[in-house]
């Protein structure tokens, strides 16, 4: 498969270099700096002994996520959401996606009455921040759960499988894997795919940026996503074994 | 195809009764009350002779959407977002989806320096409010553009195709079309699909609510969506010809 | 009494055609679409088994109201209050008026520890939205209370009388009843009057828009209001008997 | 007329002692501390050489008002609105009333393209803060306009008449003038009346707190208001001549 | 020491005339109008039988402060923070300083589970509002605590010492005491100093407005502050003995 | 000087290990990760070709700062300010301090009509985040200005001197330099000192946390600050020469 078309010179089915650095900061129960190329996201997992009001007394826990972007993670400065007085629509959309994705890999009864919050803060952005965030947040979550099992002597591991995510798209007519910013800004279709390590789909969010995409293009993108996520799951596993 | 499994008794590939009532209110350039069964959404299209700051002087227009739910559209009262001090994450996610979907059917150069705002307000909710909103908003948009062409003598019709949307899902193991609230609250997977009248995909948003979905389930859901949207496009066309 | 002066051709003491449609939506305990001519307001009554903090343990209930206007209920689009980040002064003033008016017809001890919220949402505006809202909200409230008495076997009916409202004003020197938008935008004085079915005044809010009004003008306006409200109370009664 | 019924021992048609102190602070163009008994309100008038956006280029000015209550103006501490994140419904309702009342005495063409803001801040509250505010704000406005005429050599005086306000009500069955807090908290009806020095009505806002009020009660209240406002206008005039 | 350099003609180590008027309003447990020359601040102390959430059940109380400026306390009108939707950075900085300063003179165990809120509202500003506020708030606090001891028969007086504050600065090269607005707007360095009656420092906040200040300048400013605060403490004592 | 008293074992006049890593992220004109022991702050400098409204047309620029803390920079999770709806008082106080400090080292005429924003985001907190932020922000600012001079061919270097900051305090009776969190949480006095490379003071903010501090304690703290800042200025210079 040739790749001369991609600005980065990558093959169409090639991920960017991925790095997963655990224990990046010292206070959080899980703390991971994940890089997909130049995209760098700090993912922390925080355990709190409380549940949201609607779960009180039900014997189960909750997993949620918040997403933020440092003002100068981007090529021009983005106004700080705290200074603007609230989170925008894009931020809410992304953090809801991260939260749903990570809840899909946790048995909330086994977790017990606790909240785990995954904070995903983009230190540097170059496309694919939400998929990097999901991929890194899983590792932070696994570290936090591991700590919890050590401390609390849980009977069962609440994690039921790994979760990872990648973007795929149609760039200048070619289905490609893991779009960087240059591709993302100029593609016809952008699709974020979240899957588990059993090959099941957790989220599929595809958007036609230019013209509508055909069914065969969708099939090609899904195949790329399946390949990329299999690689990401292997990288997560390797990181957790270190 | 048997359908005993669905609470409504519908066949798995059967839409709810759909009604599209044009000119529902008198002030808006386009005003449509759309019903998908008991789900009723008022969609208005408003034309304004201004553009957002980032489009000034570029000679093109903008199409955007806002979504709201009357407090008692739901079975228990939902707090009014205006009283709560802002729009929540779900609202923002939905109105961003509606806006992107409708922009996909408009040539913004041909529209000229104008904004068309599609307000989609849910009068009564029974599942599928966002897909009903997109389907109705297209008709309101078409009416508004028609009026604009009459008034302003535009050279080209800015509409490049029809857009409609439907939800599909896996309910008790069965792929089904156009979920109502009883199904939505109890399904394993929920997917919203937006397509144009040429059979192209504009948005695909699938979420595993229970277990992850397999590739073959995804294929079945996409096939149902293609069938349902073809019917919805025909109903839009019939409504516009009345 | 001639009426050639009014844009609608109505006599000076003539209401617009009034329609009261019960059970307009299906979820609310009371749901009424009220029309005063082209002004259409959806009024729902929602019962909740809670009381505000300041009434806890006092054995009495509360009746409150919220008011909203769909963005394109008006001839030019009004910005959505939820998107603007809060309710404006006009909205607050109106919903406080509706709430006080409806509380005046309820015995809060007989209601017991419950909140009834009257949501009045303007679908289409042509003047007099607050008086239509009060008139319709009373019918929605009566339906909700009726349901509550059936369900809960209350000992006493908490409703102590009917409430209705109408606007009166001085238009081009002539005292007139039930101003529509064309009159409202061009009148010297505008007064909203809320009364009960015993002929007692609950609220009188008069504002000189142009020059100050004389005592004899006030007397003429109050007489028109008394006549109009007697007709509205009869229409409410007829609707509730259907 | 006996008065044994009123907590203060006042006759039913007797105002509290009223004081109007001009030039209370030194920066504002008009600055008046007005007292109605123990109710004390600081009213300042500020002139700015700008107009609101909707009046640009129309050659006329604007008069507006803002109202606030110091946290401990009341017998128990009221939360500061700035700390709570915005003005409440009562504040908005009152400042809209003050603004409308004062606009009624100004010729906005003669004022020219300027804004006069009347800030009414309650230093100590004992009932009737909004009527004291209107009465004091008129004097502050008159001082500011006087200064403006001296400075700018205006051709015409923009003030077309004086404005004052008083509350009236039904207290234990008796129509009374100028309610203090003890009466206000325990009355059946409370009505705020704003009039000009020609005996014309500018605003009438009556609310039945307990049972609805009859037409003859309304007439009695209006007569008391006419008497009280005539006295207040004389006091304003005397203060301005000092 | 000559003083020809100061706009007011004061000696470099001379305070403005200071007045401390107790019982300025009648509702608050402590109510003081303090004047430092033309700067006038109303300081009220309010006692509430509650504690903030983080102190529940700890048997100790809290002292906090809020600061506000009436819109026309200043030479041009300042927008009302309640209307702007929240307190700005300067307000928060000042009220945090006042709160810390007053907490430094209270034994919170001896206070018991109560909150005392010091509301400092600037009626007229001419420089030094925060130091006047602290100096006046101490007297209001002393009055409130005195009342509390009378009412509640506390075993110990929770006040452990007096607190006062003054500004010092470098104005045209000369160290000066108690800057007024004309000096403040044109000085090189501005320092606010809070001390107790034992000569101990509670807060020192110095800012170089123009060039950085030298150590010897700092020493001169601290000496001026010590002198001024000794005088202020004597004035507080005299006021409390009246 | 012995140091057995400090939890870290440091001498009383000893800084924590300080690291200054330039070019930490790639988009910002200046990007520095500064560490004071376990405290790590990312400081970016962003240049924008605009000025705030109050500086338009004056030919000078502006330097401002914003401060944030990642939710899990702290030992327990802190709520995200963007999610809470705004910046708190502590954040505003700190970012105002950083802004004033950095403006003190820039000639705003020489900068020209530009804004430089210093974003200081705490990745990990262990006391002294504001002093680390100022020290790092200076280096980021210097890098940004250097780039600007290269790009724009400025006539003069707008930087007039270096700026650094350190905290000092009284810990268990001993004056100490550069408090870490364990000391900060348990000290009697905490003082933040900002100085330039000429030994001038830019800001001094001292707070008695326990008992008031004496003049001789203040002198000892200032001496420690002078020593520490001289070392920090040398480290800044070395980093900029790399």
Automatic annotation (TrEMBL), chains A, B, C, D, E, F:
SUPFAM superfamilies: Ribonuclease PH domain 2-like (SSF55666), Ribosomal protein S5 domain 2-like (SSF54211). The keyword Transcription does not apply. GO terms for biological process: rRNA 3'-end processing; rRNA catabolic process; tRNA processing. This is Ribonuclease PH. Signal peptide: none annotated. Its EC number is 2.7.7.56. Residues 14-144, 162-228 form the Exoribonuclease phosphorolytic domain. Homohexameric ring arranged as a trimer of dimers. It comes from Fulvimonas soli. Belongs to the RNase PH family. GO terms for molecular function: 3'-5'-RNA exonuclease activity; tRNA binding; tRNA nucleotidyltransferase activity. InterPro entries: ExoRNase_PH_dom1 (IPR001247), ExoRNase_PH_dom2 (IPR015847), ExoRNase_PH_dom2_sf (IPR036345), PNPase/RNase_PH_dom_sf (IPR027408), Ribosomal_Su5_D2-typ_SF (IPR020568), RNase_PH (IPR050080), RNase_PH_bac-type (IPR002381), RNase_PH_CS (IPR018336). Keywords: Nucleotidyltransferase, RNA-binding, rRNA processing, Transferase, tRNA processing, tRNA-binding. It holds the Pfam family RNase_PH. The keyword Transferase applies. Phosphate binds at residues 90, 128-130. It catalyses: tRNA(n+1) + phosphate = tRNA(n) + a ribonucleoside 5'-diphosphate. It is an enzyme of class 2 (transferase). Phosphorolytic 3'-5' exoribonuclease that plays an important role in tRNA 3'-end maturation. Removes nucleotide residues following the 3'-CCA terminus of tRNAs; can also add nucleotides to the ends of RNA molecules by using nucleoside diphosphates as substrates, but this may not be physiologically important. Probably plays a role in initiation of 16S rRNA degradation (leading to ribosome degradation) during starvation.
């Amino acid at each position: 498969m040739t790749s001369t078309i991609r600005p980065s010179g990558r093959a169409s089915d090639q991920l960017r270099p991925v790095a997963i650095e655990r224990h990046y900061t010292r206070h959080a129960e899980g703390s991971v700096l994940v890089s997909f190329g130049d995209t760098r996201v700090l993912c922390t997992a925080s355990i709190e002994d409380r549940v949201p009001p609607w779960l009180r007394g039900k014997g189960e826990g909750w997993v949620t996520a918040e997403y933020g972007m440092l003002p100068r993670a981007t090529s021009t400065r983005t106004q700080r959401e705290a200074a603007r007085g609230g989170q925008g629509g894009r931020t809410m959309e992304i953090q809801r996606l991260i939260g749903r994705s990570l809840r899909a890999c946790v048995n909330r009864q086994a977790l017990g009455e606790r909240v785990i919050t995954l904070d995903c803060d983009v230190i540097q952005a170059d496309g694919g921040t939400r998929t990097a965030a999901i991929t890194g947040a899983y590792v932070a979550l696994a570290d936090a759960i591991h700590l919890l099992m050590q401390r609390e002597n849980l009977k069962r591991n609440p994690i039921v499988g790994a979760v990872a995510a990648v973007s795929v798209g149609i760039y200048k007519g070619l289905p490609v894997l893991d779009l960087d910013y240059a591709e993302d800004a100029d593609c016809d279709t952008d699709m974020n795919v979240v899957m588990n390590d059993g090959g099941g789909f957790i989220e599929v969010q595809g958007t036609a940026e230019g013209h509508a995409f055909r069914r065969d293009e969708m099939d090609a993108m899904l195949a790329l996503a399946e390949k990329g996520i299999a690689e990401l799951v292997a990288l997560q596993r390797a990181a957790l074994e270190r």
